[in-house]
Amino acid sequence: MNLNEIYGKLDNYDGKLGALYSKEETRFILWAPLAQDVKLALYNRDGLDFESNIQKTVSMRFEEDDGIWHVTIKGDLSGIYYNYLVTNDDVESEVVDPYAKAVGVNGKRAMVVDLEATNPEGWKDDVKPVLKDATDSVIYEIHVRDFSINENSGVKDKYKGKYSGVAERNTRIPGTDIKTGLDYVISLGITHVHLLPIEDYITVDESEPEKKQYNWGYDPQNFNVPEGSYSSDPFRAEKRIKEVKEMVLKLHESGIRVVMDVVYNHTYKSKDSNLNLAVPNYYYRQNQDGSFSNGSACGNEIASERKMVRKFIVDSLVYWAKEYHIDGFRFDLMGVLDIDTLKEVRCELDKIDKSIILYGEGWNGGSSTLAYDYGCFKSNTTKFGNMQIGSFSDDIRDGIKGHVFNKYEKGFISGKENLEDTIKFAVTASVQHEDINYSNVIYSDGPWANEPYQVINYTSAHDNNTLFDKLLLTNEGKSLEEIAKLNKLSAAIIFTCQGIPFFQSGEEFMRTKKDESGNIVENSYNSSDYVNSLDWERMNENKDMVDYYKGLIKLRKTHKLFHMNSADDIRKNLVFLKKGINFQNNNVVAYIINNFNIDDIYNKVLIIYNANEFEIKVNVEEADWSLIVNGDKSGCEELVHIDSNEIKVPAHCCYVLSK
């Protein structure tokens, strides 16, 4: 049998796969329709003895109509390690179960697990924080190790860099009463914590937990198992499962939802990956010459459009949502995945919880054999109809601060010309609006979203320079005080745009990534803790900036006018002021949001972004405004009352006024 004989014949299996456990028996099922033979290899229960020999092999039975191999073993097998011995083309390979729910150290052996026994106290009573609308989301990106590994995190030593470090409460900068960790994040007011990959990845050696190692985690190995290096004991397969659940439970109790960063576009290994050893070439796209297509720029790309690959991705996401109570998923290089797969993901997750949010990178990493029209690219977002599947807006990211791959290029806030329509495009959440000249938008020639909940607005994430470092590079010679003004203007734009705001942890205290020599590190995916860890002292030093972010978040969450639910509401209520009529200068964006049937106590708000080095004047028809955001403070309280219909806005400043 060859690969072509599988399509439409042996790739229709819709049953369960993996080790199906009960206390009475465990049924092992592997989909491997090309295999000549499959055996179950059983090891012992000792996770520390991770190089032990196979204790027993058991032949598995092949069901030709389904392409599956299966065997049932009587007795309570919880804690038993196992793999499959799969023979393809007369070569036997040891394969970790693609559907493994638990693995030993470094993910080299699967383990049968009683998932009920991994539930922490209170798990069954876990209640997700309320999220009425997707547009109510405010997303905060963290890396598990970054979050607590610094000595000044105040997190207990045994929890530093671990899942438990994210969950620990009552942490303070040592010797002070200044909040750090989870207590600090609660005080920010965000709704979602976005965790960089916590699926088991391959580029940190879990067998040496005391060794200082670092990686972002975009090197997937076992898709349905938590990463072991963030566990207090990577040798005990059940430990990491329980600790992730404890972390999610504590975040939920703290009013914070949890988003997982997932990497279904590729695997770290290619020819010798578990997926390829199980079913050669099926899980990956190939070029005409048989080589791996490389749309991920990581050596291969997953063929999501194939039935059993799609099933694998959908099953995996449903499992995380059900078993771990995950509230959202961010897709790495989403453009590598096909549209129909993401639609099916959305439909299946809706059956569990319609408030689960989905978003991703609407691009790929290189040339792909998947036709562009079928990929989940930003420009194809309209093909999702009204589904909540969002894409990051690189328009607003680079429009605000400058191109991420040209470190010296300026953006709107630093005075670059002709970016007003790009900013306006972000203000309207990239939906159709008559006041925008799309020919002036930097990366899009028209609206790419149908609804505001399909757009993620941001200026910084783990990739590329931090916002603060980018502003340093593009504004050489400016003082830290001047850089801070630009940072505040950037934040004010993001949090007053329609859509969903997202920001990197530490952006709010001007996070920097410099090595021991003082050099700025742009791509810190495997840099040291010195470069990557959150410096909580910096949070204390930049309290004014932190308070500014807190005020913007509070304003946004309190007032629906800043995050309307539909494109129709945006078009009905949001009107841009015009240069030559309301103001005379370039590098200015100003608009009014009226309140026609929006649930908000404000009748209207006026927002002005001035990216010039000088004060500007904006004239509006009405007077009698309450200024609630300026260049120094933000929030819901009136800072000053303005009786005039002429508004004077200082240099590098955002004004938000209400009535």
From TrEMBL:
Tell whether Hydrolase is among the UniProt keywords: yes
- Provide the GO MF annotations for this entry: pullulanase activity
Its keywords, alphabetically, are: Glycosidase, Hydrolase
Residues covered by the Glycosyl hydrolase family 13 catalytic domain: 141-556
- PANTHER family noted in UniProt: GLYCOGEN DEBRANCHING ENZYME (PTHR43002)
Question: What family, per the record?
Answer: Belongs to the glycosyl hydrolase 13 family.
Name of the protein in its database record: Type I pullulanase
Species per Swiss-Prot/TrEMBL record: Inconstantimicrobium porci
For this protein's source organism, the top of the classification is: Bacteria, Bacillati, Bacillota, Clostridia, Eubacteriales
